[in-house]
Design a protein that fits this description.
The chain is elongated. The protein has helices at 23-30, 41-72, 95-104; strands spanning 2-5, 18-20, 36-38, 76-81, 88-93, 114-115, 120-122, 124-133, 136-146. The strands form 3 sheets. A 4-stranded mixed sheet has the order 4-9-8-6. Strands 2-1-3 form a 3-stranded antiparallel sheet, with helices on one face. It has a two-stranded antiparallel sheet with strand order 5-7. The chain contains 3 helices and 9 strands; from the N terminus they run ββαβαββαββββ. The chain starts with a strand and ends with a strand. The chain has 2 domains: 2-63, Ribosomal Protein L9, domain 1; 70-146, Ribosomal Protein L9, domain 2, CATH 3.10.430.
Length: 148
C-alpha cells in the first residue's frame, strides 16, 4: 500500500516521502496515528497545501526540544540500588526511575524517550541519552551507588 508520510517514521521514511508499506501497518498504525495518508492524488495535493504548516510545527517542536536539551545537558542523577557481593545490581536501573528523578528536579521527560542502551546493571557513572526530538538529543550522567 502506498502512503504519504506526514511525519518521520523510524525504519520507514522521512516526512513527505511516498513509500510502500504493508497494508496492515498502514491501516492499523500509520493512518490512525496521523503519521501517514493514503497516496491518492487528492491526498498528495492536500499534503502539498499543508506542507508549510507541517514544516512550521516541526521547526517549533525542534526549537522547544533544543531549549529543553540545554536545561537537561550536564544534569547528574544519583540512584541508590541494592547490590550483590560481586557489586552487580539486583535488577537494573529503569527508564521510569530516571524519569522520576528528572521530574523531582523539575524536568518532565517521557520515559519512552530515555535510551538506556541495554540497561544499567553495574555500579558507577553511566551516560544516558534522552531523545527529545529526532534531531535533538540530550545526555545526563547517572551515578549508581550501593544502597546502605
Amino acid at each position: 500500500m502506498r502512503v504519504i508520510l506526514m511525519q518521520d517514521v523510524l525504519h520507514t521514511g522521512q516526512r513527505g516521502d511516498v513509500v510502500d508499506v504493508k497494508p496492515g501497518l498502514a491501516r492499523n498504525y500509520l493512518i490512525p496515528q496521523g503519521l501517514a495518508l493514503e497516496a491518492t492524488p487528492g491526498n498528495q495535493k492536500y499534503f502539498e497545501q499543508q506542507k508549510k504548516k507541517i514544516d512550521a510545527r516541526h521547526a517549533r517542536a525542534r526549537e522547544e526540544a533544543t531549549e529543553m536539551a540545554a536545561g537537561i545537558n550536564g544534569v547528574s542523577l544519583k540512584i541508590a540500588k541494592r547490590v550483590g557481593e560481586s557489586e552487580t545490581l539486583y535488577g537494573s536501573v529503569t527508564a521510569t526511575e530516571i524519569a522520576h528523578l528528572l521530574e523531582a528536579k523539575g524536568i518532565t521527560v517521557d520515559r519512552r524517550r530515555i535510551d538506556l542502551e541495554g540497561g544499567i546493571k553495574t555500579l558507577g557513572e553511566h551516560p544516558v541519552r534522552i531523545e527529545l526530538h529526532p534531531e535533538v538529543v540530550a545526555e545526563v550522567m547517572v551515578t549508581v551507588v550501593p544502597e546502605e
